[in-house]
Amino acid sequence: MARIGVIGCGYVGLSTAVLFANLGNQVVGVDVDHAKVAQMQNGLCPVFEPGLSELLERNVNAKRLQFTTDYAVAVSDADFVFICVNTPMGPNGGADMRYVRQAARGIGRVLAPDRLTVVVNKSTMPIGSGDMIHALLTDEAADSTRIAVVSNPEFLREGSAVHDMLHPDRIVLGAADRAAAEAVAELYKSFAAPLLITDRRTAEMIKYASNAFLAARISFINEVAHICDVLGADVRQVAEGMGLDKRIGPHFLNAGIGFGGSCFPKDVMALEFMAEEANCHPQLLHAVLDINRDSRRSFIRKLNKMLGALEGATIALWGLAFKPDTDDLREAPSLEIIRDLLMRGAIVRAYDPVAMEGTRALFPTVTFCADPYEAATGADAVTLITDWNEFKGLDLERVRESMHRPTFLDGRNLYDPHEIAALGFTYCGVGVPSYPAASLPTSQLSRFVAD
Ligand code: NAD
Ligand code: UGA
Does 410 have pLDDT greater than 70? Predict the structure, then answer.
């Protein structure tokens, strides 16, 4: 069993620390956030992530997992040190690497001399970061220290982090020295996942290219949905029909209000930035981001059209988190939508199962409600922003009766348009039939189908 230090205990670091402790390793997690460390020392999970708090508590109690703010405790005895700090979007669109640099210097200062420590980059970092971290570590450490730096990008999704960690699709390891990559591979030996060993820059690029590709699928289907709206096709069935082709596959083809979260927006932008700095011409990445911005704007335009005007209208938001099963609000579409609605003079009522606290601090004039029914009461429109399971089984007749105007804008195509319209709602989704119909009449389509 290995001794492992994990630097940065957010969604990825805490999941990593818990995973390796659960496999029987001795793990020490480090964070600069004292309150977070105190919580975790008591076995409490600082983030909402299904299944994580049980594993955290179990491994803290089993004394395989501890937390500290002191780098020396985590690093000096470690065989492996994982860097899992945040790499947010910087002011120019590139990744802000200040936390990575701080972590690398902090590690370098307390590395044990005369033995090998493998530093593993798990944060998503620009191409070339492995070289930079190696240089910082060497700069700080004693001359006799032996250091290897391995890139090991993480592919987990928030909301299913535990599942994704336990069932990875692949393990990617990038290293200048194959022996170091193989040592890290040993940590994952109980997983059946394919292992890909590359050089460091290639591993770093695999992470960015994977996120950009998934984001591109979402923007692609959102563009198709927009065309479906106008021409009168149903994007849900279009996606199903496309996804049945094995070369395309069914995943990440759900049209909606665009991708949010702490990763797709910043990672596509960081790849775009790197490409531009290197005098490449990343046209597709530009389009992916443009379409994503448009998806939110067209959502507001649709709402405006449905209601006639937004000024003075009461709008209920169902869901605030950037996706279900998380409390994460980073780049959540809800925030942009609330900002836009308030700017246009609308009154906003909101409900989310777990993400209301973070939003309350940003928007003091929004009314936060105990459940979706309370949010809908007196509203001119309900907007579905996050496709939480909880919203699937609601009594929509009760919702309609409590509303001022029964108008429904479904940003995630969670409901069946025909069923919801049959209940008496004016309904609009994203690329699905709307009630009343909004697509071009057949007479106008004739110019596409005429000889
Ligand atoms: P996060 O913001 O949730 O957590 C980062 C943690 O690092 C915070 O607790 C912060 O206090 C701590 N930290 C910052 N500087 C530190 C330092 N110098 N020393 C010790 N601790 C420090 O971030 P996250 O969502 O876990 O993402 C971490 C990295 O993993 C990012 O590069 C991200 O792109 C990548 N990633 C994230 C996900 C995800 O689903 N969230 C998935 C794959 C990859
Ligand atoms: C994403 C990737 O899926 C992970 O593989 C990656 O590790 C992670 O980013 C990262 O690098 O941080 P995550 O952001 O947690 O994970 O969530 P996703 O499930 O990918 O959803 C991202 C956004 O896309 C959400 O806003 C979601 O609503 C939206 N989405 C997703 C769609 O609009 N349509 C889809 O079909 C799928």
Answer: yes
* Predicted local confidence at residue 451, as pLDDT: 61
For the chain, the residue count is 451
pLDDT of 448 reads 76
Q: For residue 280, indicate whether it is catalytic.
A: no
Q: Which domains does the chain have, with CATH numbers?
A: 3-198 (3.40.50.720), 200-451 (3.40.50.720)
Mean pLDDT of the region 322-340 = 95
Residues 371-385 have a mean pLDDT of 98
Partnered with residue 115 across adjacent β-strands are none
Quote the CA–CA distance of 294 and 297 in Å, as a whole number.
5
Pocket residue to mutate for ligand 2, from 218, 298, 328, most atoms within 8 A of Cβ: 218
Annotated active-site residue in 9, 84, 228, 263: 263
Contact 30, 53 (CB under 8 A): no
Q: Give dist(CA 448, CA 227) in Å, integer.
A: 13
Which of 33, 52, 83, 86 to mutate for ligand 1's pocket (most ligand atoms within 8 Å of CB)? 86
Q: Does the Cβ of 156 fall within 6 Å of ligand 1?
A: yes
Q: Which ligand is nearest to the CA of 125?
A: 1
Q: What separation in angstroms does the CA of 291 have from each of 19, 154, 219, 286?
A: 36, 26, 6, 9
CA distance 62 to 279: 52
Tell the residue number behind the tokens 């579905």, with chain if given: 384
The pLDDT value recorded for residue 169 is: 97
